[in-house]
C-alpha cells in the first residue's frame, strides 16, 4: 500500500473524530455505516477489517482506521475500473453539450476566476449541501438545479464529470466550488468547457500540481465577477435559509490550517513514540557496545594470563637446566683433579723406574 499523504491523514482524522471514538478507538457498530457506503460486499469488508485490526481487539484505533479507509478506497476504485459505467445515471454520463448549444446562443469566453463575492455564495451552497464528512453528492444539489434557468441536465452532468474525473459518489469542497462556478457561468450564457486547467485537473485527480510560477497551465485570467453573479443560487439559498445570502462560512477546507487539540495530541504522541523508540535503540546499541567491550577485555585478560604462564614455565625450566649444568661442571672438575693426581703418581713411578734402569746399566 502506498504511503499515505498528509492531506489523507488529516481527512481521515476529521472522519475519525466525527464518529466520536471511545478511548481513541472505534467499534464495528460505529464504522458500519462508513464501510457500507463503499458498496463493497460483506466478505470484502470483512477481509478489510481483518487486515486493518492489527491487534485483533475488535476495534480500530486511528492508525488502523487509516489503513482500513485506504484499503476501501483502493478496492472501490478497482471495482469501478472493472465495471461498466455506461448508463449508470445522469451523474456518470459524459454528455455532449452540442445538443443543448443548438437551442441557446452560448459564448466561449468562460472565466475560471472566482471572485470573492462568488466564492462566498458558493461556500454558502456548499455548507448547505455537504454531509458531516464535508462531501457533496450530485443529488444533494437537486433543488439548486431547479433554479438554474436555461441550463439543461446534459450540461449539469458534463460539469459534474469535469470536476469528478474519478467518478466518485461525492466530491470534496474544492471540487464543489469549481462545479458551482461552472454552473454559474453556464447560467449566464457561457458554454461548459470541454476540460479543466491542468492545475485543477491534478487537484481533482489527487495528483501533484505544478507549482512552477513560470508555467502556463490553464492560463487562468483574472477578471471581475459577472454583474448578475449575486443572482446565482439565490432562490436555492432563500429556500434553505430564508435569505438571499444564506449562511456564509469563510473557512477554507484547508487541512494545513486545521487546529484540533486531539489531532495535535495524536501528532505529539506519535513523535513521543518515535523518540522513545529511537532512545531504546540507542540504549540497546550502548548495551551491545558495552557487552562487546567486556568480551574483548575478558579475551585480552585471558591472553595475558596465558602469556604469563608461558613465561613462568620458561623461567622454571631455565632454572632446572642451570643447576644440572653446575653439578656436571663440579663433577668434571673433581674428575680432572683425580686424573691429574693419577698422572703425577704415574710420572713419579716412571721416573723411579728410569733411575733403576740407569743404575743397572752402570
From TrEMBL:
<feature type="domain" description="EH">
    <location>
        <begin position="8"/>
        <end position="72"/>
    </location>
</feature>
<dbReference type="InterPro" id="IPR025604">
    <property type="entry name" value="End3"/>
</dbReference>
<dbReference type="GO" id="GO:0003779">
    <property type="term" value="F:actin binding"/>
</dbReference>
<feature type="region of interest" description="Disordered">
    <location>
        <begin position="83"/>
        <end position="103"/>
    </location>
</feature>
<dbReference type="GO" id="GO:0010008">
    <property type="term" value="C:endosome membrane"/>
</dbReference>
<feature type="coiled-coil region">
    <location>
        <begin position="265"/>
        <end position="292"/>
    </location>
</feature>
<feature type="region of interest" description="Disordered">
    <location>
        <begin position="239"/>
        <end position="259"/>
    </location>
</feature>
<dbReference type="GO" id="GO:0007015">
    <property type="term" value="P:actin filament organization"/>
</dbReference>
<keyword id="KW-0009">Actin-binding</keyword>
<dbReference type="InterPro" id="IPR011992">
    <property type="entry name" value="EF-hand-dom_pair"/>
</dbReference>
<protein>
    <recommendedName>
        <fullName>Actin cytoskeleton-regulatory complex protein END3</fullName>
    </recommendedName>
</protein>
<dbReference type="GO" id="GO:0016197">
    <property type="term" value="P:endosomal transport"/>
</dbReference>
<comment type="subunit">
    <text>Component of the PAN1 actin cytoskeleton-regulatory complex.</text>
</comment>
<feature type="coiled-coil region">
    <location>
        <begin position="329"/>
        <end position="356"/>
    </location>
</feature>
<dbReference type="Pfam" id="PF12763">
    <property type="entry name" value="EH"/>
</dbReference>
<dbReference type="GO" id="GO:0006897">
    <property type="term" value="P:endocytosis"/>
</dbReference>
<feature type="domain" description="EH">
    <location>
        <begin position="118"/>
        <end position="207"/>
    </location>
</feature>
<dbReference type="Pfam" id="PF12761">
    <property type="entry name" value="End3"/>
</dbReference>
<feature type="domain" description="EF-hand">
    <location>
        <begin position="40"/>
        <end position="75"/>
    </location>
</feature>
<keyword id="KW-0677">Repeat</keyword>
<comment type="function">
    <text>Component of the PAN1 actin cytoskeleton-regulatory complex required for the internalization of endosomes during actin-coupled endocytosis. The complex links the site of endocytosis to the cell membrane-associated actin cytoskeleton. Mediates uptake of external molecules and vacuolar degradation of plasma membrane proteins. Plays a role in the proper organization of the cell membrane-associated actin cytoskeleton and promotes its destabilization.</text>
</comment>
<dbReference type="InterPro" id="IPR002048">
    <property type="entry name" value="EF_hand_dom"/>
</dbReference>
<dbReference type="GO" id="GO:0005509">
    <property type="term" value="F:calcium ion binding"/>
</dbReference>
<keyword id="KW-0963">Cytoplasm</keyword>
<keyword id="KW-0206">Cytoskeleton</keyword>
<keyword id="KW-0254">Endocytosis</keyword>
<keyword id="KW-1003">Cell membrane</keyword>
<feature type="region of interest" description="Disordered">
    <location>
        <begin position="208"/>
        <end position="227"/>
    </location>
</feature>
<keyword id="KW-0472">Membrane</keyword>
<feature type="compositionally biased region" description="Polar residues">
    <location>
        <begin position="84"/>
        <end position="95"/>
    </location>
</feature>
<feature type="compositionally biased region" description="Polar residues">
    <location>
        <begin position="214"/>
        <end position="227"/>
    </location>
</feature>
<dbReference type="GO" id="GO:0030479">
    <property type="term" value="C:actin cortical patch"/>
</dbReference>
<keyword id="KW-0175">Coiled coil</keyword>
<keyword id="KW-0967">Endosome</keyword>
<dbReference type="InterPro" id="IPR000261">
    <property type="entry name" value="EH_dom"/>
</dbReference>
<comment type="similarity">
    <text>Belongs to the END3 family.</text>
</comment>
<dbReference type="GO" id="GO:0005886">
    <property type="term" value="C:plasma membrane"/>
</dbReference>
Amino acid at each position: 500500500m502506498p504511503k499515505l499523504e498528509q492531506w489523507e491523514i488529516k481527512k481521515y482524522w476529521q472522519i475519525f473524530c466525527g464518529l466520536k471514538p471511545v478511548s481513541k478507538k472505534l467499534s464495528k457498530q460505529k464504522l458500519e455505516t462508513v464501510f457500507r457506503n463503499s458498496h463493497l460486499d460483506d466478505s470484502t469488508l470483512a477481509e478489510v477489517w481483518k487486515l486493518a485490526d492489527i491487534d485483533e481487539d475488535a476495534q480500530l484505533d486511528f492508525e488502523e482506521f487509516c489503513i482500513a479507509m485506504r484499503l476501501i478506497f483502493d478496492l472501490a476504485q478497482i471495482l469501478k475500473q472493472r465495471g461498466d459505467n455506461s448508463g449508470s445515471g445522469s451523474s456518470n454520463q459524459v454528455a455532449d453539450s452540442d445538443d443543448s448549444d443548438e437551442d441557446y446562443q452560448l459564448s466561449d469566453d468562460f472565466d475560471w476566476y472566482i471572485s470573492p463575492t462568488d466564492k462566498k455564495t458558493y461556500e454558502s451552497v456548499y455548507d448547505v449541501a455537504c454531509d458531516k464528512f464535508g462531501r457533496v453528492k450530485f443529488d444533494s444539489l437537486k433543488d439548486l438545479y431547479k433554479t438554474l434557468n436555461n441550463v439543461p441536465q446534459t450540461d449539469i452532468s458534463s460539469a459534474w464529470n469535469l470536476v469528478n474525473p474519478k467518478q466518485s459518489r461525492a466530491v470534496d469542497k474544492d471540487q464543489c466550488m469549481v462545479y458551482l462556478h461552472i454552473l454559474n457561468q453556464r447560467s449566464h450564457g457561457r458554454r461548459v468547457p470541454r476540460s479543466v486547467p491542468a492545475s485543477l485537473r491534478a487537484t481533482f485527480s489527487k495528483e501533484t500540481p505544478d507549482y512552477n510560477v513560470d508555467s502556463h497551465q490553464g492560463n487562468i485570467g483574472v477578471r471581475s465577477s459577472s454583474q448578475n453573479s449575486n443572482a446565482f443560487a439565490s432562490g436555492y439559498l432563500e429556500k434553505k435559509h430564508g435569505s438571499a445570502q444564506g449562511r456564509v462560512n469563510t473557512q477554507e477546507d484547508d487541512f494545513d490550517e486545521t487546529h484540533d487539540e486531539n489531532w495535535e495530541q495524536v501528532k505529539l504522541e506519535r513523535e513521543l513514540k518515535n523518540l522513545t523508540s529511537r532512545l531504546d535503540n540507542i540504549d540497546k546499541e550502548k548495551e551491545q557496545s558495552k557487552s562487546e567491550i567486556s568480551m574483548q577485555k575478558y579475551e585480552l585478560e585471558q591472553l595475558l594470563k596465558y602469556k604469563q604462564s608461558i613465561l613462568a614455565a620458561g623461567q622454571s625450566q631455565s632454572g632446572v637446566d642451570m643447576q644440572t649444568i653446575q653439578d656436571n661442571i663440579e663433577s668434571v672438575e673433581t674428575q680432572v683433579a683425580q686424573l691429574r693426581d693419577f698422572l703425577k703418581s704415574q710420572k713419579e713411578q716412571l721416573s723411579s723406574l728410569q733411575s733403576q734402569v740407569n743404575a743397572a746399566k752402570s
